[in-house]
Specification:
Number of domains: 2
Distance between the termini: 32 Å
CATH topology of the largest domain: Rossmann fold
Number of helices: 12
Strand order of the largest sheet: 4-3-1-2-9-10
CATH architecture of the largest domain: 3-Layer(aba) Sandwich
Shape: globular
Radius of gyration: 18 Å
Helix content: 40-55%
Strand content: 15-25%
Number of strands: 10
Oligomer: single chain
Length: about 270
């Protein structure tokens, strides 16, 4: 039986659109409802209590849209509030555990780097999952506080001196540690892949959590009998807590195409 309810996806801002992009590739028949908390981005600098409060609000909004599965497309929420997601009445998929497994399988020298927001790195969740899959791994973690603001303002060109020097400043310790695999521990970061590759070198494997998460979503839908097999054309609805002047430009950058204006709506998440 086809289940044509949408998949719900949320993030602290627009970075989760990189996960939506991978979901559209892996599950072209599935409708998607996305919420980006653009008014309160970034989450990674907030307290654990505030992040958990925001996660509850974001998830409540998606449940109000009758979603059949929720994806926390936010490394910060996935790291400090997954217990809340696991209590939801629908299947829940986060981005951390799948990235950790992918990195453990990809590394050749056992040296794995993780980059993310302050809250994500301080949680230690990526390290925990990596060591669960590869106990002998050496894990090196680096908080990259300025990466999300760079992406949210559209500064992602690898040839931009500000972008390059910022990325280099953060990643130098990981280069010195000789990691051969690097987890992009925030869904904003894949857009900086070119700059990160330029700094780290072509031999370093970048782990895009969006790809491994999309695979996990597909598996969860199949196991729970939730795949949409109606044959109808899939749709995407986008909700944000603030429509910024640069919204369309940044959304197109992250999603790979500009969402139709009619599919974007602003909501007051505090009233959910």
């Amino acid at each position: 039986m086809a289940d044509n309810r949408p998949i719900g996806v949320f993030d602290s801002g627009l970075g989760g659109l990189t996960v939506v992009k991978e979901l559209l590739n892996a599950l072209p028949d599935e409708d998607i409802v996305y919420f980006g908390d653009t008014d309160r981005v970034p989450y990674g600098t907030k307290s654990k209590e505030t992040i958990r409060k925001f996660a509850r609000q974001d998830e409540a909004f998606l449940l109000s849209k009758n979603v059949k599965l929720i994806v926390a497309a936010c490394g910060t929420v996935s790291s400090v509030a997954s217990d809340i997601g696991n209590q939801l009445p629908v299947p829940y998929v986060e981005v951390v555990s799948h990235a950790g497994k992918a990195a453990a399988m990809a590394t050749k020298n056992g040296k794995i780097g993780v980059i993310g927001t302050n809250a994500t790195i301080n949680s230690g969740e990526h390290r925990r999952y990596i060591l669960e899959y590869l106990p002998t791994a050496e894990v090196y973690c680096q908080s990259c506080t300025l990466f999300v603001p760079l992406v949210e303002t559209g500064w992602v060109d690898e040839n931009d001196p500000v972008v390059y020097e910022t990325v280099k400043k953060y990643l130098t310790p990981l280069m010195e540690a000789q990691v051969d695999t690097l987890i992009l521990g925030c869904t904003h970061y894949p857009v900086l892949s070119a700059a990160i590759k330029r700094v780290m070198g072509e031999k370093v494997t970048l782990i895009n959590a969006g790809i491994s998460t999309a695979e996990a979503v597909k598996k969860a839908l199949a196991e729970n009998g939730l795949l949409n097999q109606s044959g109808q054309k899939a749709t995407c609805e986008y909700f944000v807590s603030d429509i910024t002047p640069s919204f369309s430009k940044i959304a197109a950058l992250l999603l790979g195409k500009a969402p139709q204006e009619s599919s974007v709506q602003q909501v007051d998440i505090e009233k959910i």
